[in-house]
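Schema walkthrough. Field components (list of strings):
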Amino acid sequence: MNDLFHEPLPNLILFLPLLAAVVITLFTQKNGHLSAVISVVAILGAFGAAIFLFCSRLESLSPRDFAAHWLTVDSKTLGESLRITFGFLLDRLSLLMMLIVTGVGSMIHIYSVGYMRGDRSFGRFFACLSFFTFSMLGIVFSDNFLQMFIFWELVGVSSYLLIGFWYERGAAADAAKKAFLTNRIGDFGFLIGIIFVWSMAGTLNFIDLRNHLTSNPVLLGGSATAIGLLIFCGAVGKSAQFPLHVWLPDAMEGPTPVSALIHAATMVAAGVYMLSRVFFLFNETSLTVIAWTGGFTAIMAALIAVQQDDIKRILAYSTLSQLGYMVMAVGLHEPPAGMFHLATHAFFKALLFLGAGSVIHALHHEQNIWKMGRLKDKMSITFWTFLIGTLALSGFPFLSGFYSKDSILAAAYRSNLPLFYLGVVVAFCTTFYMFRLIFVVFLGKSKSEASDHAHESPFIMTGPLLVLAVLALVGGVIGIEEFVIPKYHSIQFVKTWSERTMEPFSVASTYFGIGAFVVGLALSFALYAKAASDPLPRALPSLMSAMRNRFYFDELYAWLIAMTHEALAEVASLVDRWVISGMVVRGAHGATEFMGRALRLLQTGNLQTYSFLFAAGIALALYLMLLR
Amino acid sequence: MSPLTWIFIFPLLAAVGIVLIPRNYRFVIRCVALAATAISMLLSISMFASFMPGVPGFQFEQQRAWAGDLGISYHVGVDGLNIGLILMGATVAFAAVCVSSSIKTREKEFYILLLTMAGGILGAFASLDLFCFYFLHELALVPTFIMIGVWGKGERKNYATYQITLYLSLGALLALLGLIAVYLQLPAGHRTFDIPQIIEFYRTHRMAESAQRIIFPMLLFGFGILVSLWPFHTWAPLGYGSAPTGTAMIHAGVLKKFGLYGLIRLALPIMPDEAQRWAVTIMALSLGNIIYCGFVAMRQRNLNMLIGNSSVAHMGFAFLGIASLSLVGITGAAVVMVAHGFLAALTFALSGYLHEQTGTLEIDRMGGLLRRLPFIGAVTIMAMMAGCGLPGFAGFPGEVLSLFGSWGRSQVMTGVAVWGALVIGGVYMTRAIRNILHGEKEWPNILDATSLWRRLPFGLLLAGLLLFGCFPRLLTDGIKVSVEPIVGMAAGELHAVKGGHR
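Field assembly_structure (string):
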């Protein structure tokens, strides 16, 4: 372990956004444009430094860790040792993730300048955005569990602040609260897991933990499954997996660039990143649970997405579903596939959200897809980039999503057939609901006055769309998965572009994926190409209504919370008021009265009670002294 | 003279000085109070800066023989355990005087009492003599009751005064009896009120178990009542809810830590057998604070009652750390004490400001305040977040260390405490933000704290939270050195207990 400032670059990357956030908060918040410039310059600087760091690291990619002591409580004589560092762990995972966060983040920052223009709190928006970038990079660089947990909480709070950005709107304020608390439930397990790991292994440093586990595989003993599942809880909350998925769709109340950056591309992927980071900790049982949780989330969210009418909610459920894929990949022993899908998903889902933002911006904050239509001609850049994003998400051959999704499906095909078929159904649903969106929003007839008068967004918004579209196109063949694989398997290989491009076609699972795409597209075309309203609810009323109502999870949880926490709180409050405060204090009151009438006679004010007791105390003390 | 003496004597001298100032010289009175607490704060900062954390034993020590026959002396000194408390206490005292500008009646008496509170409690924390330790705390405690009675707010003011007086007097009395008993347990030749000497004596001569069995519960519950240990907590929310802002800040922030400090400094090292026996019980009671009072806080419709209950809940983490009897846990408890001091003072200052502006503390009648109060609103959000254990604020390292420490004693109870820390705390804090600051209610006639002067107290308290939150080693490096012998005394005896009883 080297000193924290051994290398200046990671420090620069991490602290530039923090500096921007602090400067904006303290000094420039009232000047919106200056704040925007500071924030954008900071993330571009961080991105530049990240590229530089990445290139300088390419020769020696073995993990490097340098850190400062943040909190050390240890004693040799007592045999206790808790050492928590603040450090940077640079390896393949963190380098890749760092590029995604700063790169995609840069695009979204630039886009925000156009999207948020004219907002009353322009400066505050960028302060929060920069603070988020700082926290997210903190998770990426963390070299130990507690540091990760610290930044984990900090991204939670920046997400809270950004979802509730328009806090005057009740829905936004409620959604922020819900997101924060749901995440806290996941963190509850995560923190217990962290404490558990420390108590068993005596360290929280990732590299040390891994070494301990390699030299002593039974280190965690019978607690291995419990620890694995507790740590997984953190990912369930942050990556919005079933059963803690309910917060993500509501989080769409935040500004659209926030949905793109935090609730699609980076923060929600932190769970997958964390699982990949501590993959060595999981045993078979916990991996099975992880895989099935991911798979179930994927199918459930995909089904719900089919019946949503809000453009951002469709994308939100799609995000849930894709996160399910990534988690499933980790559970299937293939973190590289999960990280690969994380990267490509960051490209095309950020693109889709920004495209949706462009549409919403053009239609003066209309989000219902049934009030859009015919936007292809009026917003051609938005349309074509959105289409690329959709094709990439649906797994159209040669686009980025095709390769990453195929990688996950191939892993399932090898080891878990039920999950493989489930994955194929999800792929079908994905194509179906995404093309439903395309047909209704961009093609078909115009369904409202707003969409008649829509205009293309300014270049500051379409520019980032174009950049992300290029990434969504080629992201599959630039070798992201190969870059990650050596972290988990000791094979080193270099592939050419053509090998990478054609490799999936040699596996049977790929054709299932392509089939799912074709069927989904055809069905979607048949139902929605000319539709003015959704035909499905009439065809399958009860199922569609369940899907439309998100399978009633929100209602179920509201009921559960009312039954447990609210009820307990009510009981505690009543006990406090009537039993402890009432009876006990009044009882003491009565006892005091009983013990000393004299006190009552003397008592003209409250102070006397006190002085009496004080005097009584001294008398008693003297009595004790004399007694001895 | 040790800077410690100046730190606590300045507020007391100022209190005496104000007695001599005619009551209509309001400005002068306030200036004297501000100057005295400011000097005491600056001295404490410079002392903290020159404190050497790695060195065992006391620093800035001063001892003068006083009532030699009884073994009472004037003895002050700091180690890692109380240096943070004194820094925090002096800062809170200054901030409390700053925000007391809203007091418009009987200012002279108010400032005399406030300064007595501040000086008294700082002196108690500085004292290494049992007599001064207890006496100075009493000196600080009595004004609390008077201030709630005279300057308090709300219709339950009288009941609150009655309850807090009754409870705290009982607690203080019980603690006094315990302390006297500790003194009497010393053999005649060794009788002294000097705390380091008492501890040193019991390091080599174990106190008889029969005596421990009586004295430890006396100290535990005596000190515990002073810290609002569940179920002796009901005085706290009600009392703070009715108290004037400055009083609530000093009492909840500083005075309340006296009991915890006494437990760690005195009760644990000299009565290890009983400490071990009571540990699980203390842990269970601490869950009463964390979970039960957390639930109660969820139901509150009055901002001060909510803050008061949450403050009681936070004390649970200090008890949890103490109950662990481990180095990590007790270090955590000591950090919680400092962190909570800043936090409690900050939240009561904020609620005082909001009350002043909106004229209400009923949460249902507030809402939408963030728009009109960008500064106060932002500070309130930060304080609420610090209150639910957000990293970056000092509470986090404290609570996390307590939890790490207590895991070894009981995994289930620690798990429950984590739920209280992350979820229940999160529920009432985010709810408060939602109902007070968010929303669209319009407030035409309220003012934000815009001048640097009005922002200063909030800024100082926030700075304390952030400083120790981001750099917890500033506290823990010193604390750990001081806690190590305390835990060593408790753990060393552990073997004897196990061996003896089997």
